[in-house]
């Protein structure tokens, strides 16, 4: 051992009893282990396994005077760094140790780089304005990985309800409330701590008779000087508490989570106020048209049931409401005299009326979050056979949003009084949809609509106060303008 003096930065311990060595390795931090392969009742493989179980980054070098290829392969497969055959020169031993420590240094640097890369990726996702929940989940999972924690949770303030709510949980039972989670992990009363500061609680515990060190770390999420949540971590480790470097990393992750929460909150508020303005415009349009009061709401209810029948995803369903409410927003550019004209429109008037999809698309064009609504606005007067407007698209070239709206918009038009004709009953409206299947309407949408109607999920009685009316027999105009 004296000959290893060049490695003076390391504390070198020598054991003549393998059992004592195993005990030491189980209770102390080790970087490198040099062991014989056969030592009485113990084997070097046991030392190797104990070392790597407790210290995955440690380097283990084995020595033997009775080498076989089988033993060499087995030792290296189990994670041993190298294998020396006795007798060997001291210089060979030193150079193997040097190589091992260099290998360890590079591996640790790689781990550090990996952490930095992960932080960079989270920053990019943050800057790119991705969805909040996946981003928060990634932050929590990173914290668990970097700290080697058992569990981590992210608690976010619900500003409306003025309550903290659990948003993400990793490594523990899901579905628990924050208080339950914190209580379960011994953090009773954490929410009553100073909410603007980080708290680290450390304790010594015993698991199966062996000493462990446990750290509870609570990092506040601060935005504009206000607490908007917490990142909580629980780490149990045999050899060290959470280090200052790891604490720094967690504080970075907590500030990233705070930025993500705050920007989503701001974005949501901005969207809300935009949407309120646009809805006020849509209401203004509806109020001008004496015949279409409540039209957008009825169209939405019909479209929702039909879209469900077609198996639309949640994301599409979220846009559906805005699409239905705003689909005729372009009528704001149509003069009252044309909008409410009781008789037939002249060619010129019809042209003006038919400009409303493009006028509507122009209104929404500059509002990025309303972009998904554009197909409803622009395409709801296209016809399946290509004879519609504004672009004369045909078949599946018409966005599905437009094809869906064409069906429900027409059904509602037939079911309600219009300047140019009175309302008809549901039977008549359904017959019209079938008659114009593949001409005006996408057959798949008509089928889904009929299915929803017949199973009662359209709920026409609730929407129109009747399921059939008047026994109306007059011809109806199928295309609403
Ligand atoms: Fe329209």
Strand order of the largest sheet: 7-6-10-9-8
The total of beta strands comes to 10
Count of DSSP helices? 17
User: CATH topology of the largest domain, what is it called?
Assistant: Hypothetical protein af1432
By secondary-structure content and strand pairing, the structural class works out as alpha+beta
Helix content: 40-55%
Distinct small molecules: fe (ii) ion
- Contiguous runs where pLDDT drops below 50 for at least 5 residues: 467-478
Broad shape: elongated
What would CATH call the class of the largest domain? Mainly Alpha
Mean model confidence by pLDDT: 83
Structure, explained:
The protein has 17 helices and ten strands. With 481 residues, the protein is of the alpha+beta class. The protein folds into three domains: 2-108, Response regulator (Rossmann fold), CATH 3.40.50.2300; 131-256, 2-Layer Sandwich (Beta-Lactamase), CATH 3.30.450; 289-464, Hypothetical protein af1432 (Orthogonal Bundle), CATH 1.10.3210.10. The strands form three sheets. A five-stranded antiparallel beta sheet has the order 7-6-10-9-8, with helices on both faces. Strands 1-4-5 form a three-stranded parallel beta sheet, with helices on both faces. The longest helix has 45 residues, at 244-288. The structure holds fe (ii) ion.
């Amino acid at each position: 051992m004296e000959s290893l003096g060049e490695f003076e930065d390391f504390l070198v311990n020598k054991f003549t009893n393998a059992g004592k060595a195993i005990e030491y390795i189980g209770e102390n931090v080790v970087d490198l282990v040099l062991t014989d392969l056969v030592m009485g009742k113990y084997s070097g493989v046991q030392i190797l396994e104990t070392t790597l179980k407790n210290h995955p980054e440690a380097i283990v070098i084995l020595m033997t005077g009775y080498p076989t290829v089988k033993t060499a392969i087995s030792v290296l497969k189990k994670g041993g760094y190298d294998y020396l055959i006795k007798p060997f020169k001291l210089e060979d031993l030193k150079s193997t140790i040097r190589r091992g420590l260099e290998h360890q240094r590079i591996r640790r640097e790689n781990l550090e780089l990996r952490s930095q890369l992960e932080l960079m990726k989270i920053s990019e996702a943050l800057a790119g304005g991705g969805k909040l929940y996946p981003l928060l989940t990634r932050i929590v999972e990173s914290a668990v990985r970097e700290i080697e924690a058992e569990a981590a949770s992210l608690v976010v303030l619900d500003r409306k309800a003025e309550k903290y709510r659990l948003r993400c949980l990793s490594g523990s039972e899901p579905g628990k409330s924050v208080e339950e989670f914190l209580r379960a992990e011994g953090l009773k009363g954490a929410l009553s701590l100073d909410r603007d500061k980080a708290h680290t609680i450390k304790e010594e515990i015993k698991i199966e008779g062996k000493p462990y060190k446990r750290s509870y770390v609570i990092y506040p999420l601060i935005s504009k000087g206000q607490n908007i949540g917490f990142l909580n971590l629980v780490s149990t480790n045999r050899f060290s508490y959470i280090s200052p470097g790891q604490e720094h990393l967690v504080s970075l992750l907590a500030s990233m989570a705070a930025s993500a929460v705050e920007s989503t909150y701001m974005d949501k508020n901005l969207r809300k106020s935009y949407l309120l303005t646009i809805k006020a415009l849509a209401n203004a349009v509806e109020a001008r048209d004496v015949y279409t009061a409540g039209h957008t709401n009825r169209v939405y209810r019909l479209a929702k049931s039909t879209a469900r029948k077609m198996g639309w995803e949640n994301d599409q369903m979220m846009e559906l409401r805005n699409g239905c409410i705003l689909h005729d927003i372009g009528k704001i550019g149509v003069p009252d005299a044309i909008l409410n004209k009781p008789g037939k429109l002249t060619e010129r008037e019809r042209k003006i009326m038919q400009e409303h999809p493009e006028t509507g698309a122009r209104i929404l064009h500059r509002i990025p979050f309303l972009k998904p609504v554009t197909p409803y606005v622009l395409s709801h007067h296209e016809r399946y056979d290509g004879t519609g407007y504004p672009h004369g698209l045909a078949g599946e070239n018409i966005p599905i949003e437009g094809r869906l709206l064409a069906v429900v918009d027409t059904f509602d038009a037939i079911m309600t009084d219009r300047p140019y004709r009175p309302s008809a009953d549901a039977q008549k409206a359904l017959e019209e949809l079938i008659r114009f299947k593949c001409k005006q309407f996408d057959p798949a949408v008509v089928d889904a609509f009929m299915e929803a109607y017949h199973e009662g999920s359209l709920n026409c009685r609730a929407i129109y106060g009747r399921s059939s009316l008047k026994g109306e027999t007059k011809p109806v105009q199928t295309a609403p303008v």
